[in-house]
Amino acid sequence: MKLKNYILVSFFFIFYNCEKDFLNVVPDNIATIDLAFNNRATAERFLSTCYTYIPEHAHAEQNFSLVAGDEIWYYAENDFYMNNETSFRIAKGLQNSSSPYLNYWDGGRGAPHSLYDGLRDCNIFLENLVAVPGLTEEERQRWLAEVKVLKAFYHFWLLRMYGPIPIIRDNLYVGASLEESQVARNSVDDVVEYIVELIDEVIESDALPGIISYIYTEQGRITLPIAKAIKAKALVLAASPIFNGNSDFSELVDNEGNPLVNQSYDLNKWVIARDALLEAIISAEENGHSLYEFNTQIPINGEINDVITQELSHRAGITDPFNNEIVWAFEPAWTGDLQQWCQPRWTADHQALFNYTKKSHAPTLNMVETFYSKNGVPINEDLNWNYDNRYDITSITGNDEFHKYYVEQDYSTAELHLNREPRFYSTVGFDGGKWFSLETTNIEQIPHLNAKAGAPSGKNGFEIYSITGYFAKKLVHYENIISLQGSTIKGYSFPIIRMADLYLNYAEALNETKESPDSEVYEYVQLVRNRAGLDVDGDLVSTWSQHSSNPNKPLSKDGMRDIIRQERMIELALEGHRYWDLRRWKLAEEFFSKPIRGWNIFRPDVEGFYEVENIYYRNFLKKDYLWPISQNELLRNPNLIQNPGW
């Protein structure tokens, strides 16, 4: 990296929920490093600056994993109301090496800054937080620990994108020569080792708190469970097929011909990841983290029942601020923007207040078919689920208790929408599906969506509509109210790491280290499935035995691997994990090369609407597994080698 003389420029103050908090304060008008560290207040602002490089996870560009895969599709790249050219163009397979989209290496094309600038600022902080007037030694050690973890996270983020990257242990001195600034890429194993080294230093220092005590002023600051979780997730990435014995990257070598990506599969990488995940889980649980269960009183007519409570356990586990499942959430910006892109319409007020109901962040039919049947097995395996006729039109009639709070009675919808697991109804809004919120005046009168052309939830013009006919229900807070009398959009911090993620990662690592799955592997998947309302009459082994055409699937290592992977794609749907998971499993070519599908949203009639449309064809290539380094950076630094295929 080319070292520039460090001059900290002023930033605008960012406000969250109309309150200024710790993480939104950045140094202003500080011209020299000495002034930045001459008192506690300015040093704390510099600490805040180190946090500001975290990509906004509710931002569909900065956190491109929300859009760049096959979960979400938009009707356009850019119009008067939306600008999402970068991550959506990556989804379309339009990445390039001349001026890469979401360029977190150099900064630009949707990336708000270079993460190497972030690493530079972190190093400046670590080098200069020595003796600051007004700062206690306990605070100093905590701040140093936080920034070391941020350094580890920024290396991890770049590693996921680019693979081998230069490690930035220290900043170059001001008088460094051009040759000294032309650093080479380090191997994946070396980068992971450095991430682990940084976090192990923090763990040994015992300087981080286990929990945040002052949530309104310190929300998002690094804790010990966060540090251990980042370490564990870096080790999972290193153990996964993309970087563990992947011959596709054989041409990625250093100047001496040594491979930058491990060419021989190493089972011990999974052992190390497994142990780190267990340590992270124990730390999180000891500090009060667990799977979220909804238990809030809601001011509507009629008490909410078990069905709605089950739904809100999944939805509010994402949108309820400070809930015990979220290990780490950081959001310096208002998440209401993302919610507005997810929110459909079903009333005249919604139609009038279209800025609140942009409904364009559209789940695809591809991801909708990932969810299980109500029996807790894949729909193409369920012995009692009519998979071949899943696009046929049907309706709920008579006394149907299962669908009573999920689907409108006597409303024509697709077979695909019936007899699905509770998480499907918690995650996805669909034509004929009910949408519970605080706009619901009576539990027995939950409004439903009509997504056909010309209908409230459907296409009503040339812009602002769901291109697939589906809506991202899970990401919309149930407390939102959209009304001409006054609208409320309840903001929340988008989760980066939560307990279900760690449990399923741990089950994955356990399964990879055993000859065949056992009760320990099943235990952590079962925790997530039980919260999801599955396996009520037994466990996942008995569920497959009774309901699946592949009854022995959970008994083999390969079968359990598939189950864990599908469980992750369901439980963590719409949160950005699917994009990263499919890449690290080397399955992106299989999933992302399939046509993006949805309903025929241009038709107002039932028969026309329920025609499956291929919206976009993308050819995901092996080169797309790693981000390209810009041509300008390669010209500036001849010691860098481009990623394969670019």
* Average pLDDT metric: 92
Number of strands: 10
Termini, distance in Å? Answer: 21 Å
Structural class designation: mainly alpha
Enumerate the strands of the largest sheet in spatial order, edge to edge or round the barrel: 1-3
Outline the biggest β-sheet: 2 strands, antiparallel
Structure annotation, total helices: 23
Q: Return residue spans where pLDDT drops below 50 for at least 5 consecutive residues.
A: 1-26
Strand % is under 5%
CATH fold description of the domain at 22-293 and 627-636: Serine Threonine Protein Phosphatase 5, Tetratricopeptide repeat
Backbone shape: globular
CATH architecture assignment of the domain at 22-293 and 627-636? Alpha Horseshoe
Gyration radius, in Å: 25 Å
The top-level CATH class of the domain at 22-293 and 627-636 is Mainly Alpha
Helix content: 25-40%
